[in-house]
Amino acid sequence: MRKRLHHPDQDIILKEAIGQIASPARRRFLTGSLTLGGLTLLTGCDLTNSQGVETALERISRFNDKAQAWLFDPKRLAPTYAESMMTRPFPFNAFYGLDRVPRVDADSFRLEVSGLVADRHAWTLAELRALPQTDQVTRHICVEGWSAIGKWGGVPFHVFLKRIGADLTAQYVGFKCADGYHTSIDMPTALHPQTQLTLTYDSETLPARYGFPMKIRIPTKLGYKNPKHVQAIFVTNSYPGGYWEDQGYNWFGGS
Amino acid sequence: MTDPARALVHPLWLRLTHWLNALAVVILVMSGWRIYNASPLFDFRFANDITLGGWLGGAIQWHFAAMWLLAANGLIYLGLNVVSGRLWRRFLPVSPRAFLADIKAALRGRLSHADPHRYNAVQRAAYLFVMLDSLLLVLSGLVIWKSVQFPLLRELLGGYDTARYIHFFAMTGLVGFVVVHLAMVALVPRTLLTMIRGR
């Protein structure tokens, strides 16, 4: 004889099933809500195309800028590492391939300085190299998630900003690069002790693939806030945006 | 209202925080998969069709918007659970012995859900797991988002790179919970109505 299985929830399940069969309205409601849920999931990606949603996300991203500025501690240092922990080879990363890395002529290079600064003279590489230099072994964190440890050397950026008589109460410092890239940062980050006007990588002149003749190294910010091949620096109070930031990356991009 | 069978199983605040949490989790997981795809930890990617955001920048916008909903809603949920005493009433105690006994019963199809006012040991363990797992997701997420600003948390979780793995595995745990949770709801659909109507 077959053993009859008794499910402990049998009575409830049966009662419920009978209730549902008896109530077509409830059945319609249930199937309806399932379909709605399915629709939401299916159209999830299309939501990004809606203007209203995009505007709302953009607003929240601006709010996140403020939250990060509030969280940012101007004295807190990014961790530093032993040289033996450096990532070799350090990854090349840009919005173009290695074959399109700009070749900047060292002799004719001039770093342009403009905006809210007292001294607007353009700097030669020799002049930049004559300023006080420090180096750091820090972790570069990419917005994509990967990270790599490298060694950068150059002028502490706050030293440079003071040297050019920058208005340190201004809101933004912007950067324009030889490869068409541009970005901008907040003044507290610009004055952070580890923010660096970088001239060397691994104790050698900064190679083209890492941003010759100079980059801005900011270990408290994500990679896209660390511009390479910088040829112009400006201090301003009007929001300058940036190459990726204008497309939707968060502007503060802090770590 | 004196009839215990007619009493509310889930108060309104619980139902609201449950559904807001569900919304936040769906957005966070789907956008998180897109972010994962930008630099996969393992030898696979999530199909773009099941991700949210359209591209990395869009996915990050969704992720960093829904994180506020998850955090604020989660704090309200935990706060009201503690203040109302519901946390202890409904989820504790949960002993390994009771858990094993209920797991065995569940696998043999003999675990009863007849009394919606009382969670069995497996349910208790599962809900406590997902609470702690969500907490781990938030903490590892904070390390990934702000590894410089939260040094103590960063070191506790083994550094930036380790925090990415913790975040991934905690996500896997959360998705695993959701799969089982939905399967259980499908088996006992009345629980869905309870979470909507409260009784």
Sheet with the most strands of chain B? none
What is the strand tally of chain A? 9
Provide the CATH top-level class of chain B. Mainly Alpha
Low-confidence stretches of chain B: none
The count of domains of chain B is 1
Percent of residues in β-strands of chain B: under 5%
Oligomer: heterodimer
Task: Give a topology summary.
The complex is a heterodimer of chains A (255) and B (199).
Chain A: H1 10-22, H2 24-42, H3 51-71, E1 112-115, H4 125-129, E2 134-141, E3 147-156, H5 157-163, E4 172-177, E5 182-186, H6 187-190, E6 196-201, E7 204-205, E8 215-217, E9 230-236
Parallel strand pairs in A: 1-9
Antiparallel strand pairs in A: 2-3, 3-6, 4-5, 4-9, 6-7, 6-8
Chain B: H1 12-38, H2 56-84, H3 86-91, H4 96-107, H5 121-145, H6 151-156, H7 160-187, H8 190-197
Helix pairs in contact in B: 1-2, 5-7
Describe the protein in words:
The complex is a heterodimer of chains A (255) and B (199). With 255 residues, chain A is an alpha+beta fold. Chain A has two domains: 10-42; 73-247, Sulfite Oxidase, Chain A, domain 2 (Alpha-Beta Complex). Chain A has helices spanning 10-22, 24-42, 51-71, 125-129, 157-163, 187-190, and strands at residues 112-115, 134-141, 147-156, 172-177, 182-186, 196-201, 204-205, 215-217, 230-236. The longest helix of chain B has 29 residues, at 56-84. Chain B has a single domain (4-197), classed as Transmembrane di-heme cytochromes, Chain C (Fumarate Reductase Cytochrome B subunit), CATH 1.20.950. Chain B contains eight helices and no strands.
Structure described in brief:
The complex is a heterodimer of chains A (about 260) and B (about 200). Chain A is an alpha+beta fold and about 260 residues long.
